[in-house]
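Hi Q.,

Before the meeting this afternoon, I wanted you to have the 6-O-phosphono-beta-D-glucopyranose prediction in hand. No need to reply - just skim if you have a minute. The sequence and ligand are here:
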Amino acid sequence: MVIFGASGDLTGRRLVPALFSLYQGNLLPDQYVILGLGRTSLTDDEFRHRMLENIRQFGRKNSVPQKKLQQFATHLRYQQLDSKNTDSYRILKSRLKKIDRQKEAIDNYLFYLATPPQLFAPIAAHLGAQGLQQPSSDSGWRRIIVEKPFGRDHASATELNVQLTAVFAESQIYRIDHYLGKETVQNILAFRFANGIFEPLWNRNYIHHVEITAAEQIGVEDRSGYYDSAGALRDMVQNHLLEIVATIAMEPPVLFEPNAVRNEKVKIMQALAPVQIENVIRGQYIASMIRGENVAGYRQEKDIHPDSQTETFVAMKFQIDNWRWGGVPFYIRTGKRLPTRVTEVVIHFRETPHHLFKYVSGGTTAENQLILRIQPDEGILLKFGMKVPGAGYTIKNVGMDFHYSDLANSELPEAYERLLLDALNGDSTLFARADGVEAAWRFIDPILQAWASDRSIKLYGYPAGSWGPKEASLLFEQSGEDWRYPCSNLTGDDSYCEL
Ligand code: BG6
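Predicted structure with the ligand bound:
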C-alpha cells in the first residue's frame, strides 16, 4: 500500500490506526509493506515512530501489546516525494520493484491519495507515465483510492473523472466516502433487504416523509483553509447525505455485487428532482455561550475571512422523481456547532386514514416513526402508539429499540477499516462510482450557482449550540410538522435531552 500524503493528519489519525486494527484482526495478508510518501524528510524509523504514536492516540482503545505494535512497524516504510517531480516517481518505481524482489509484497499495489485534491490528477498522471498502473504479472493488480473532495462542482468532478480514467480503468478507481464504511450505514442495506416486513411499507403509500440529519457539535476546527472554500453543501450534502438518501431510497438490487448495488444507487441520484432554491436554507454559526463557555462565531475562527459567506448549515426539501417515491418529501439537514453530534434517518409513516380515538379522549393519535440511528448510540427505534392503561383511550407514543451496545461484541469497526479492507479485496460496493458522483453534483450545482449569483438569498446567522436557523422549520408543509430534535441517546422519549 502506497500512501501519498503520509505526513498528513488523515494518514496518522485514520489510515494507519485502521490498518493496524486490520493487522490485529489478522485481516492483512502475510506479505505486505505500507510505504508512506510525503514532502517532509523522514527516515523509515522516524515514520514508524510517528505512526506508532498515532496508533496509541487515535486507534481503538483496547489494550495493544507492545510486541504486536513492533511487528506491525516492521511493515512501515517511508520515502520523501515531491508529487510534481518526475524523478521522485522514478525513485518510487525502483523502490517498489525492490520491495517486490525481496518478496516483501507481491505485485499488488494499492495507491491511496490522501493529499490535497489539486494533486489527484497530477499524481495519477505521473503513476501512469511510469507504467505503475499496470501489474507486471497476470495475477497482480493495481488500484487507486481517491479521498474526498471529489471535485467542487459538476464540471471539475467530470474533469477529474476524465483525468483519472485516462490512466486507470474505472474498475481500478475507489472513490472514498467514509459514511459508506460506517457499520450502521451498511446496516440500512441489511435492514431493508434481509427483512421481508419493511419492503411493503417502503413507498409513497405508507411513508409520509423522510428526514435525515447529520449534526456536528464541533466547529470548523483547524480546517479553515479547506472549509471556507467548500461549505456544508459541498462538504457533507453532495457526498455523505446524498449517499444516505440513495441507500434509503434505492430499489432492491438483483445481486449483492458492486455494480448491481451501485446501479440502483445511481438511479436515485439521477432521479433527484431539481430543487427549488426557496427550499434550501443556509446558515452560519455566530458567537454564543455553550454551557457557560464563550464560543466564537464562524467569522471569528482562525483564518476565516471576517466577511465569509460560507454556509456551516444547510437544510433542504426535495423530491425523488420515481414511482416508489413520487410525492414524498425528503428533508435533509447538516451543520456544525449544533447542540449535539447525531446522524440519523427518520422514516415518518402516514397517519391512520381515520382517527378512531380522536374524539374518545385526549385527542391524540400515534406517530409511527422508524429511526435509524447512524451515530452515536447506534441503533434502531420504532415508535408507535399504545393505550395508556386505565380509563378512556388516551394514546401515548412508545418506542421499541435495538442498540448496538447491547450486542456481546459491541465495538463497531471504524469506517476506514472496512473500506481499506474492501479495497484490498477488490470489492467496490461501498465506493462511489463516476456516474453517481457526477449525478450528485448535477443536483447540487444549481444551488451553488444560485447562491453565487443571487445576493438576495439569505445566509441566516444561528447561535453556536442551537439547531440552526429557525427558517429551516418553515420547510415543512403542514402545521405541527417539524424536524426531530434528537438527543445523543436514542430514546423513545425525546422530551428531555441531556446534551
Ligand atoms: C468529513 C467532513 O467528510 O466528515 C467533515 O469533511 C465532517 O467536515 C466529517 O466533520 C464528519 O464525519 P463523522 O464520521 O465524524 O460524522
